[in-house]
Amino acid sequence: MYSSISGTAMIEGNAITGEDVKRIAAGEDIVSYTQKDKQEIKNLINAYNLLSGFEPADEPFTLTEEIIKKLHKIITGNVLLENNIPGQYRNEVVYVGDKAHGGKYTPPKISADIKNLMTEFVSWINSEEIKILNPFIRAALAHYHFCLIHPFADGNGRTARIIEALLLQTSNIKYVPKKISNYYYRNVDDYYISFSKSINLKKNITPFVEFMLKASVESLHSIKESIVYFIRKFTLRDFYAFEKKEKRITTRQFDLLLLLLDNQAPFSLKDLTEKSPFSLLYRRVSTQTARRDLKKLTEKNILHISNDNKYSLNLRALG
User: Fold this and answer.
1) Do domains 39-223 and 249-313 have the same CATH topology?
2) Active site residue 101
3) pLDDT tens, 104-118?
4) CB neighbours (10 Å) of residue 39?
5) Which of 101, 150, 221, 304 is catalytic?
6) Are 179 and 223 in contact (CB under 8 A)?
7) Does domain 39-223 have CATH number 1.10.3290.10?
8) Which of 54, 118, 165, 181 makes the best surface tag, with the fewest CB within 10 Å?
9) What residues have CB less than 8 Å from 75, skipping those under 6 apart?
10) Where are the domains of the chain?
11) Among 3.30.1330.60, 1.10.10.10, 2.60.120.10, 1.10.1510.10, what is the CATH number of 249-313?
């Protein structure tokens, strides 16, 4: 969640990292960031917490203007933004996009038009013809058309991405709703260009839908890799314990392997005696003994050694 909050905020120019989002969520005040950036992150934390409270349902979720306004009020509350009133539609001209990403687009200008369009938007996104679509398609349509209307003076992108996540989450799609914003940030130019291409094609929004689906697939692959990694990690932990029980490795070698499971950067023989956390194990051990440990674990294919004599854990030791 923290990295997703960072991603959706960074798209809008907020530089706070996922790790620092976590620190802010824990109540820490990081003085190197502006109050505005920190408040935006606090708002997004509150929005994501609200999002987590929506449970999956058998029927497609009914998106309302009330929910949209509530999300926007949370996202932009207590932040000074020109002409923006949290939770209220704008009544002035805004411009979306730039030449580098396919050109500028001018959304509807006056409050009366925006109100009519938002009424039609929620009616359409909740219609039977849209509700029966695949949840990813429905969420992409909501994301795109909400941004097309651009109903608020500021915070539209963040609100759109939360709406998308809400529709996915309530369709019983796990993990992806809170991860997909990272893909948008990492591919932010393509994100904006897909909007512009869809706008320029008038009624054909294939470019944006394709981009959103690609983001979903990449997010799923990333989640799968994380799950496989943790399965390997827990399995290896049991394997090391078994090897120790059978006296095939020593207690010190076992402890080293546990440290490596949580510190997987390549290391050298010298690092064992000089760098934390390895030095806690090897500070009173001779270099020759440390070398024997590494040689044994390498011969058992538990460790890899590179051409520059750097060691690393073999996460595929069990195949």
Assistant:
1) no
2) no
3) 999 999 999 999 999
4) 17
5) 150
6) yes
7) yes
8) 54
9) 40, 43, 44, 47, 86, 155, 158, 159, 162
10) 39-223, 249-313
11) 1.10.10.10
What's the token pair of residue 265?
A: 């950067």
Overall size of the chain counted in residues: 319
Token reading at 98: 């730039």
Q: Write out 72-85 in H/E/C secondary structure.
A: HHHHHCCCCCCCCC
81-89 contacts at long range (C-beta below 8 A, 24 or more positions apart) = 81/153, 81/154, 81/155, 82/153, 82/154, 83/153, 83/154, 84/152, 84/153, 84/154, 84/155, 85/153, 88/152, 89/114, 89/115, 89/118, 89/151, 89/152
Residues 6+ apart with CB under 8 A from 36: 79, 80
Other C-beta atoms closer than 10 Å to the C-beta of 99 total 8
